[in-house]
Design goal:
Jelly Rolls, 2 domains, 9 strands, 18% strand, alpha+beta, Arc Repressor Mutant, subunit A, 5-stranded antiparallel β-sheet, 38% helix, single chain, 4-stranded antiparallel β-sheet
Length: 265
């Protein structure tokens, strides 16, 4: 029986003021991230405009979902409070159509408003995190099927190999083949058929995706991130990163939304 992953990785969430002398700067010329963004605002007055697309206002009666890789500008004309989630999803959500997706189901919008106004203490963090995950999946249900690639169901042996490569990107093909109960050649053939790339190419892309998230969500230097991603130096890391994302890591780091004090989010 074939299977597919359902894991959600939540990177960051908050409920912050925008506009005027607020701490968060929403007036950005170019923003990008290799993760999903979910937005809800408690009042009108903030806008996003994808490159080559129409401007969308963030309103209290809807959520806005932005898919990985979408490049957009943002602006704010009034003081509002902004609830956001940044998260990573498995296939098929990694390759969604490049445009904003509204989620307007009243129960989903009401759930977002409740979560925005009820940040948890340590005693109920588990329940809050569970509700955040429910909100993510409820909003994603409103993404139209035609905006996503077909769901690929993987051979369970390949799912295990993919999970191993995410945690141990240097795992060699012979070991992966043994764990899958296959000869090396049979494993490589099956992996390429199922995933569309050989194991080492898959592992490198996973490492670069993780590095892209670190560039936005950590204060580590590019040299440190390069080392953690398994590259011998910044030069080789930058070359691979530019090939994958069409810009270098220093430029990519600047594409995170910034607070007024210059730090990222």
């Amino acid at each position: 029986m074939k299977t597919f992953p359902l894991d959600t990785i939540l990177h960051e969430y908050n409920f912050v003021p925008l506009g005027g002398p607020a701490y968060w700067d929403w007036n950005q010329h170019r923003v990008r991230g290799e993760y999903w963004r979910l937005y809800w605002n408690d009042a009108p007055g903030a806008f996003i405009r994808p490159e080559g697309g129409a401007e969308t206002e963030l309103l209290p009666d809807r959520l806005i979902l932005l898919p990985p890789g979408l490049v957009y500008a943002s602006r704010c004309t009034a003081e509002v409070h902004h609830f956001f989630l940044h998260f990573t999803m498995p296939e098929p959500y990694r390759e969604a159509e490049q445009r904003p997706f509204p989620a307007t189901d009243p129960e989903t919008v009401a759930a977002a408003a409740r979560l925005a106004h009820s940040f948890p203490g340590t005693d109920n963090l588990r329940r809050y995190a569970t509700r955040l995950n429910l909100l993510i999946w409820s909003a994603l249900l409103e993404v139209p099927d035609q905006a996503l690639p077909p769901l690929r169901q993987y051979d369970p042996r390949i799912v295990r190999a993919m999970e191993r490569l995410r945690t141990d990107p240097d795992a060699d093909n012979s070991r992966l083949a043994r764990d899958a109960g296959l000869s090396r050649n049979s494993f490589l053939r099956l992996f390429r058929t199922e995933v569309g790339a050989p194991p080492q190419q898959f592992a490198r892309r996973e490492r670069l995706l993780q590095a892209a998230r670190q560039l936005h969500f950590s204060e580590s230097s590019i040299e440190e991130i390069a080392q953690q991603a398994g590259f011998c130096d910044r030069y080789h890391f930058s070359r691979a990163f530019r090939k994958e994302f069409n810009c270098g890591p220093a430029t990519y780091r600047k594409l995170a939304i910034r607070r007024h004090d210059g730090s990222r989010r």
